[in-house]
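Extended Data, panel c. Modelled sequence:
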Amino acid sequence: MFTRLGAKNLELLRELVPKATVIAALANPVNPNAEPQLNDLRTAAQALGLQLVTIGASNDAEIEGAFPTLLQHRVEALIITADGYLISRQDQLVTLAKRFAMPTMYPLRQYAEAGGLMSYGANLPDAFRQCGIYVGKILKGAKPTDLPVLQPSTYELVINLKTAKELGLTVSPTLQALADEVIE
């Protein structure tokens, strides 16, 4: 559900940081979904005329080391890809992004709630509700092979204005109006 959000993530991040031309994507290289997400971001970055730097991190030390690497590459904004391990390191990622003053887009609202700048991704409660309905159909006798593949139907944008202010960023009224939630 995250592999086709690259263009939207870059569009939203560029709206918030319009002068950024070098953007990085942090991905867990051991996740089989990492490459499809990165390919989507590469295609979107090329279409927007942006340079995309990809950095892999699959443990705490690599996450810690990624942020100094961002500075070496003159990265101006960062996208964290969707990955179970990276989600489990949410507090570490948010803290490092703040320490290095790196405008960062995250895949889930929980990052923005934890102090991250901005998130765009599937609304997980809605996705879980869809899964429950799907399982209910199976329990009532439907064959899984006869059921359609489900995709998320609700996506949400969450912006943390406090973090934006700390980073010296101004969130335009247009971007605020697009947000499903603005954290003050």
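The two ends are 28 Å apart (CA to CA). This feature is highlighted in the accompanying rendering.
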